[in-house]
Amino acid sequence: MEALLAIYQIIGLLTNVLVMLIIIQFVIGLLFAFNVVNPSNEFLTAFYNSINRLLDPVLRPIRNLLPSTGAIDFSPLVLIILLQIVMIVLGSVIRSV
Q: Which keywords accompany this UniProt record (predicted)?
């Protein structure tokens, strides 16, 4: 039981890190879109591209399932909701064991 709880906590930590990366990607994308930060800023552009390379394999299947909405990408929001649902289900399963 305690091993399952430890695994659940590790999965929760990794989920929180993934959600933070999604939020950081969103914020940097907004800063670029509204010209708050110049896209020629090499550090921020490299950081943004690195996060995109990490998240793209996870977000691409969701983007393929969602209808095209133009400039607005809802796949990060869908991923965050799915991660929260998975954590709730895992927590329920572990508590019932």
A: Membrane, Transmembrane, Transmembrane helix
